[in-house]
Amino acid sequence: MKDEESGNRLGSYLRARRELVSPEQAGLPPGGTRRVPGLRREEVALLAGISPDYYLRLERGRDRNPSPQVLESLARVLQLDDVEQAYLLGLTSARPRTPRRKRPEHVPARVHQLLAHLQIPAFVEGRAFDVLASNPMAVALSPRLRPGHNRLRSLLLDPEERAFHQDWTKATADFVAALRTTIGDDTDDPRFVELVGELALSSQRFRTLWARHDVRRLDGGTTTVHHPVVGDLRLHRDKLPVDEVILVVYYPDKDSDSDEKLRLLAALSTSETAGTAHDRPAGATSPKAP
Q1: Of 8, 45, 101, 126, which one is least surrounded by beta carbons within 10 A?
Q2: pLDDT, averaged across the chain
Q3: Core vs surface per residue 161-198: b (16+ CB within 10 A) or e
Q4: Are strands 221-227 and 245-251 parallel, antiparallel or unpaired?
Q5: 193 — phi, psi (to 5°)?
Q6: Neighbouring C-beta atoms of residue 58, cutoff 10 Å
Q7: pLDDT digits (tens, 9 = 90+) for 64-96
Q8: Average pLDDT of the residues in 140-146
Q9: Other Cβ atoms closer than 10 A to 124
């Protein structure tokens, strides 16, 4: 989190976002050769109605307390959506930071019971996309949904997960943007520091996306995945907060082709589980997770 460690998160965000807006998008003539991608600082200042010197101070971290009106003008120029504007405003919230005790993420017992009863893929994830619990249908859908896996790490580093997603490019962009949104100003959380550091070292795709400073919510939606046995599945996704964790469920349209394939996957999974139990020597017990 190099930009967060520098203490100038506002400047880093403004610089990253102006590099993504072309002069044409901002209503300006493209001009001649441009040394920087996107808008120049003085162009942002002009369009936002502030002085170039003041905008320079904002980017360089010399002024940490711009007014909401200035930030809203900058959000308009940088073409930020509601989520991005809220994130921008949050970067300057002048509230004292007090150390918070990090409690281990806990899956309530009732959620474990719920997972056992659900006949659709369902799992519980933490704030950093760690899989904390899952039901057999989730594991049948993707082995990377077993507890102990991290969804973002799998998405970026596991070739099988890349093949699983029909639109891997969009999925990675959405997940990285959602991670930055979740982190917010909690940049010293050890789990976030560990995950961002690991992915920054091991994934060029992550480094590219992280440098964009995109923020996005990753809630409900519809996605298409490719299962190696039953083929393509079009599934809806819902995320339901439960205490401090998130219950994620995937389900198809009723009586659709994907519904039929998911039923087949459930049958195959049940048969495989039964076969494994049948082959186990008498008196043996299922291996316990580490």
Answers
A1: 101
A2: 87
A3: bbebbeeeeebbbbbbbbbbbbbeeebebebbeebbeb
A4: unpaired
A5: -60, -45
A6: 25
A7: 789 999 999 999 999 999 999 999 998 886 444
A8: 97
A9: 26
Q: Is the pLDDT of residue 41 over 80?
A: yes
Token pair recorded at residue 282: 């008498």
The span from the CA of 264 to the CA of 235, in Å, is 15
Reduced to 3 states (helix: H, G, I; strand: E, B; else coil), residue 220 is coil
Residue 10 tokens read as 């506002």
> Residue 80 phi/psi, 5° resolution?
-80, 145
Structure letter (DSSP) for residue 239: E
Quote the CA–CA distance of 207 and 197 in Å, as a whole number. 10
pLDDT in tens, 225-258: 999 999 999 999 999 999 889 999 999 999 999 9
Q: Which two tokens stand for residue 139?
A: 């594991």
Q: Could you tell me where the DSSP H helices lie in 19-67? A: 41-48, 52-59
Given a cut of 50, whether residue 170 has pLDDT beyond it is yes
